[in-house]
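Okay, is this right?
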Amino acid sequence: MKALRARHVVAFDASGVAGATLAWGLGAPRARAFAHAPLPPGALWPSPFEPNARRRAEVEAAAREVALSLRLGGAPVCLVLPDGVARLSDLDVPSDTSPVAFARYRLGPTLPYPADEAVIDVLPLGGRRVLAAAVRREVLRDYEDVAAAAGLCQERVDLAPLGALAALAAVKAEAPTVDVVLGDAAYSLALRGASGVRAVRNRRRDASAGEWRRLRAEAERTAALDGQATDLRLRLVGAGALSLVGELRAAGAAADAGWRVAGDVLPGQGAELGWLGTALG
């Protein structure tokens, strides 16, 4: 689940399955093709405890539609799992300890299922600090089975918040900055300073009216964990990011979209998707 370079990306979330074929030139990556297949409400719901594809046939059909639209054939694909499926925690790892082993030691007792059922991965945040993620094997297997049934050739699996935060790390941030990675069901916030990420929080999402106020308040709480001032810059990626950036700016907040992708085939909503960051590393 590491954020490595990928050409084909297929991502799952509650609202649908999306995919992109990307190429690289000077500056921003270029989208050669983009596809999106919406899901009926309730067909898929991101959960860390149980299989997410509640109506599997509909999820498989959406993934198959994306694969056909992108003409993937047998090309290797990075599957991106949505925010809300993993337990996340930022940790300071002792110098003589394996980050993955330390993450398993720290996360294991906090999981609502047996620790041996967890797949653990870590994202370096700077120094000996990492963002640790635990995904239940049953949940991971659910997405892999859906992808296989849809004819996708899985190369690797990534998590949307880890991939997006890794990509945002490559874009210079003015300290203090809070990066916000938006999924349909949950979102992640990361306070980034000159020495790297200093604090990470994960929240269930409420996208009802006034969401920009709640996001700004959560960003300020995240910054306060490291003693930062509340005068923050926010960088947003993910579902609904462009609209939220506009609302935040209208209220006088410093807010920007996290990245830009070149290519005429990419619609506006495609540019918002946090999972696209997994292809930028």
In short: DSSP finds seven helices and 13 strands in the chain. Residues 60 and 150 are 5 Å apart (CA to CA).
